Amino acid sequence: MMHMSLSLMGLVRAAVAAGVLVAGLPADAQTITGTPGSPDATVTIDGRYLPNPPLPFGGTINLNAIDSKPYWPARVVPPKGAPNVLLIMTDDVGFAAPSTFGGVIPTPALDEIANSGLRYTQFHSTALCSPTRAALITGRNHHSAGFGVISETSTGFPGYDSIIDKNTATIGRILQDNGYATSWFGKNHNTPAFQASQAGPFDQWPGGMGFQYFYGFVGGDTSQWEPNLFRNTTAIYPYVGKPGWNLTTAMADEAIGHIKMLNEVDPSKPFFVYYVPGGTHAPHHPTPEWVDKITDMHLFDNGWNALRDQIFANQKKLGVIPQDAQMTPWPDQYLKKWDVLSDDEKKMFIRQANVYAAYLAYTDHEIGRVIQAVKDAGKLDNTLIVYISGDNGSSPEGSPIGTPNEVAQFNSVEVPVADQLKYFYDAWGSEKTYPHMAVGWTWAFDTPYQWTKQVASHFGGTRQGMAISWPGRITDKGGIRSQFHHVIDIVPTLLEATGIPAPVSVDGVAQKPIEGVSMAYTFDKANANAPTTHKTQYFEMFGNRGIYHDGWYANTTPISPPWLLGATPNPDVVNAYKWELYDLGKDWTQSNDIAKDNPAKLKELQDLFLVEAAKYQVFPLDNSLATRMVTQRPSVTAGRSSFTYSGSLTGIPMGDAPQLLATSYRITADVDVPADGGNGMILTQGGRFGGHGFYILNGKPVYVWNLLDLKRVRWEGKDKLTPGKHQLVFDLKYDGLGFGTLAFNNTSGIGRPASATLSVDGKVVDTQKMEHTIPIILQWDETFDIGADTGTPVDDADYKVPFAFNGTLNKVTVDIDRPQLSAADAKKLLEGMQRSNTSSE
């Protein structure tokens, strides 16, 4: 056997020497630097097949080690001269918010990248967060990557299931296998919500997508004061016991430490840092000193209409819009002008804007610290920095009057301005609020364009400011580039810059082609005005859609404003929408609809949209939002109605936890309490801004429903529990037809009343009724916990986290009795929906 093995090795060595293919690759496709087989040898791989097939053993093996020659595998490194990459993207920042693109909010870090490199003025997103992020890290359109919408509204169609398939490798995976140190800091909204638990699978967490280190949060947003934070796949709570701790700073500290470590441990190894902070997605959580700094600047005292005019003038001075660009009209049918507001409204809205602006300025400042770390490492000249200002347009998800609690707004509950002033004005931006600004500011921060985040048909939803610097390569300092490009173009740009090819196979799976085009041609000053290489691009989000082709743009007219999150638009997405047409060569801002005068051109583009949509998995079109939020997905809870726990188990995310909204349920806890009657959490879900908790407080059983931090309904036993075993039961009866009716009639489906009893050892100790229940969603950056509470309390007056139970939880059972919709009810509700749609047309 030994002789046979040695003979085979000899044959392999002979084949390599003769230039025969090894594992599908030419022998000369892999360039070894240094002495082959030595400990310091490196190899630049072909890169088309990942992971790289192992190179053949080049030493000799005999029976005795003293007669043999060792041969170490060469360490994989990128092509010579490949740059470090720092890819930055902020969240929910409209084109007109930062100073770099004409805004009044100071963003010196973004200014620095633009002034040392290039500003891009026709760069586009998808109009929504995780779809943009999926496109950014894969180089494919968002539907191609499975992210036609966010995971929380995903459906069982290939373009909408929020699963980045194995045939769609990320830039992290490509660069990792080519020798880069890869890391991800901040927001991860590309792990499916139904795969985000500690049970895994983890292949669609950052580590499974090619990012060797992750520090951040999973989901659309999180509190910056008390976040649901992870290091790799482990939940961490570094803020506990640290008043004033803020994730925006902590994340920068983490990235700075990581860059410093890489530079000191292996200064020759290039890094790819994907840095995506939560700013400025709600909740707007800057530190108090930043709020004071911005407030003292009086940026917003004249209101949102005057702000638009000021920004528009700034943009023309900077040259980030053409001199002949037109300001799009104010949406009088939806939003009040500043002059007609009351003094109380103006006072509250200015406060909202100051906190938002402070959050953006604060976020940019911390990004500046990360950029400084690259300078301190002496690596700035050969670092390609891409700084994208926002993953979509400015967010309208705070309602026309803003909200102290975004969770309330997502449940279609508005908090009147009078109550905002009375209860939340001073706390706005602190850990006691989960705030979002009024839509008037949102529209202004998208100047000069129409519409906002979620609206893919208009540039207010999709046009992002972007700056790129690479001091050792880009010499046109402060140049402006106006070629039409899209977020899918970043991956091919990075691949061209690093000299690494897009793989044709990863882990044996053939890869979808990269769908973007490289922007690297714009780095040269000679190409400042070169024609764009991105000729055609479709847009679609929640039924709103557009198509760009060779300077022309056709798009639908939105039929419902995106801040009406509970609206049920006409489901005939194909025929219910009007189309518009623009010649972008003459009309930069989509101001003059010329569809009536150019029917043939409009038809040409509409047909092209159908072709592109079919190619990239856009069908079926779906304009629903709230109904998709409550759709069951293939999580660990799918099809289950009974759940059993014991002891302590914390950190189950919302997408993998029992859903207790719009349903009857019963929680049974078999406990053993100590001599003092017990203290601590039995079961909780959600937190300060919406959730519920079942616990023992000073020996007495308590159940609290926190209704969006606006009201709390409380059940409590009057008598202290005696030491020993007890059975505690909370039994809630829901008076409604459940989520199944949401698309038909909200009044009979969700948010309906409920009555409940609290029992001890079979005896009812309290009964309460809720006139309204939370209709759609609990606080999403909180978790489902047994035996302790992570994140924030459901009632700050009762306890502080973790509030671990000091007795024994022998068994906790959750039994769900979901409403069943009869055929007669379904028919009645369907008829009502049809009448409603007819009357609204």
From TrEMBL:
Keywords: Calcium, Hydrolase, Metal-binding, Signal. Residues 83-500 form the Sulfatase N-terminal domain. InterPro entries: Alkaline_phosphatase_core_sf, Sulfatase, Sulfatase_CS, Sulfatase_N. The keyword Translocase does not apply. The keyword Kinase does not apply. It is an enzyme of class 3 (hydrolase). Its EC number is 3.1.6.1. CDD domains: PAS_like (cd16025). GO terms for molecular function: arylsulfatase activity; metal ion binding. Residues 1-29 form the signal peptide. Belongs to the sulfatase family. This is Arylsulfatase. It comes from Ancylobacter tetraedralis. The lineage of its organism: Bacteria, Pseudomonadati, Pseudomonadota, Alphaproteobacteria, Hyphomicrobiales.
